[in-house]
Amino acid sequence: MSRIAAVFLIALVTVAADIDWTKVRPIEDFDHYWTRLPAELQFLRNSVPSARVTNGREAIPGQFPYQVALVISFNQGSGLCGGSIISNNYVLTAAHCVQGASGGTALVGAHNRLNNEPSQQSIVFELDGITIHPEYTSNTIRNDVATIRLTNSIVFNDRVRPIRLPSSTDVRTFSGRIATVSGFGRTSDTSPVTSAVVFFTTNPIITFANCLDQWSNAVHVIQSQNICLSGNGGRSSCNGDSGGPLTVQEDGKSLQVGIVSFGSSAGCAIGRPSVYARVTHFLDWILENSDVDEQVA
Length: 297
Fold this sequence. Notes:
Layout: H1 3-12, E1 24-26, H2 31-35, E2 50-54, E3 57-58, E4 67-74, E5 77-85, E6 90-93, H3 95-98, E7 103-108, E8 121-132, E9 146-150, E10 178-183, E11 199-206, H4 208-214, E12 226-229, E13 236-238, E14 245-250, E15 253-262, E16 274-278, H5 279-288
Parallel strand pairs: 1-5
Antiparallel strand pairs: 2-13, 3-11, 4-5, 4-7, 5-6, 6-9, 7-8, 8-9, 10-11, 10-14, 11-12, 12-16, 14-15, 15-16
């Protein structure tokens, strides 16, 4: 490697120690996250995506090379969300994670975000790199998808890889498929802090009708643009996992089918389905607002 290239890598890759994690809170802990909701939807308070995957297991280092920890800057402080690597330059996340943000940092390649691991890269993003779906409506949580353009490119390695996306012709619902959700969110409803390490859990994707039936008080929120994961066994995403990936296995590889959007206000481990933005519904928009080539997707 040339000296110039080496200097470049050092310049764009900072260590996790540069982030003061004691000042980072799950996005769901911010009042501005809730004040956007009308009175009839305030029942969702404390019910959005889980901070850490509840009743899950610790991942093997490198198991989820596409996992991103987003530290997002707001006037009120720094918020934590999840995301997924979709190219060297772009991260996919939820719109509610970055609404009102001024920028932030994307941490990739981390198993333990508190440690200085060789695979880690901490890359800044700015306000002009945040693209929120133009039809995102915060008071109904619809079109909850956003892309983030990083100020420097991610350097891929054994523990840093992009997630595969479905093709634009894929119309499957994935109902009945076993899916995996991963993140650094809270590991239980009583946990005061988010997880230092990546956790994950698996459950079946359920039908839209089944999901709607279990969310009878949110029929005006859950739409066909959503995909739902069973909450069996109290396994779910939790506060801090917002924006993270929901994946299924396809030909031995992970395929992202959802983006963590919200969960039950009764608690992450209560057993109610967690709700995700359906990637196939938004794929055209994602491709138009990133540098992902559908030929590779």
